[in-house]
Write a structure and sequence with these properties.
The protein has two domains: about 30-195, Alpha/beta knot (3-Layer(aba) Sandwich), CATH 3.40.1280; about 225-290, Orthogonal Bundle (Helicase, Ruva Protein, domain 3), CATH 1.10.8.590. About 45% of the residues lie in helices and about 10% in strands. It contains 13 helices and seven strands. A seven-stranded parallel β-sheet has the order 3-2-1-6-4-7-5. α1 packs antiparallel against α9 (about 180-195), α1 (about 20-30) crosses α10 and α11 (about 225-240) runs parallel beside α13. About 45% of the residues are buried.
């Protein structure tokens, strides 16, 4: 695819971080707050097999973006390949665009098999899912995004996601079936959630990062759809300033997306950028650009 023992009497013990219980609960809830998104899947059998891969790892939220077979969750081949995960398949949410699939998502991971000029730098799945744990600990939905079996994800789809992962497969034969790729990521994410939620896991890096405020992160992260509206607002402002030529945009917005993706935008930060854009547009007599 382009696709832990009791302390001796009198011994002092360190008190757990006051937020540790909440963090553990959030991570346990990650199984229900994680979406697996398949963009334009071509083969019903792969969709059914992906549903099976999710259920074996404890996940259930499958989102399909414009599948080639519109009612693929009812397709006999998909049902056969789901092999007992019929409930996950039947509950699959079908949407027309990736933007719809990511609505309300605060962090998203795109899986890609090839190097991209733009977008965040790729990480191996085991490292990438630690970032997923940190985001789940803050609350909100996250999403793992997989591309079409033949063409993978478009650059536009990759740029819409927060982070990027690459499965370091055999370079001589690196083609993974879509459902296999879903299984790899679901397995790694399950291990990360269970490890962070295990007794004595307060020292786990992902839990520590979630229980204590991350450096530079003070508030809740912005949702994907709010960030996309920010980009539209900002682009309109840059056009009004004649800084961006809509007829020859080059890679300006792609570079800005990469810059903002590295920062992990909070809601208030998105509001600040949109406030700046609004005032630019008003000064230029273009309304507020909303």
């Amino acid at each position: 695819m382009h696709p832990d023992s009791a302390a001796p009497a009198g011994a002092q013990t360190s008190a757990p971080h006051p937020d540790t219980h909440d963090v553990h609960e959030s991570l346990a809830g990650g199984f229900t707050s994680t979406r697996f998104v398949l963009v334009e899947p071509s083969h019903p059998g792969n969709v059914g097999a992906a549903a099976r891969a999710l259920k074996t790892m404890g996940f259930s939220r499958l989102v399909l973006v414009a599948p080639r077979v519109p009612q693929v969750h009812c397709d006999p081949e998909a049902v056969a390949m789901a092999s007992g995960a019929d409930d996950v398949l039947a509950a699959a949410h079908i949407v027309p665009t990736l933007a719809d699939a990511l609505a309300g998502v605060q962090w998203s991971l795109a899986l890609t098999a090839r190097t991209r000029e733009y977008g965040p730098p790729p990480a191996a799945p085991r490292h990438a899912v630690q970032d997923a744990c940190r985001q789940v600990a803050h609350g909100g939905d996250i999403a793992l995004v997989f591309g079409n079996e033949r063409t993978g994800l478009s650059n536009e789809d990759v740029e819409r996601c927060t982070a990027l992962a690459h499965i370091p497969a055999n370079p001589a034969y690196s083609s993974l079936n879509l459902a296999q790729a879903v299984q790899v990521l679901a397995y790694e994410l399950r291990l990360a959630y269970l490890d962070a939620h295990a007794p004595g896991a307060a020292s786990h890096p992902a839990v520590a990062a979630g229980a204590a405020a991350q450096p530079g992160v003070a508030g809740p992260l912005a949702a994907s759809d709010d960030i996309e509206r920010m980009y539209v607002h900002l682009e309109n402002a840059l056009i009004a300033l004649d800084f961006l030529d809509p007829a020859n945009p080059k890679k300006l917005m792609s570079r800005l997306r990469r810059l903002f993706a590295r920062s992990g935008l909070e809601r208030e930060e998105v509001n600040i950028v949109r406030g700046i854009a609004k005032h630019i547009l008003m000064l230029k007599g273009k309304g507020d650009g909303r």
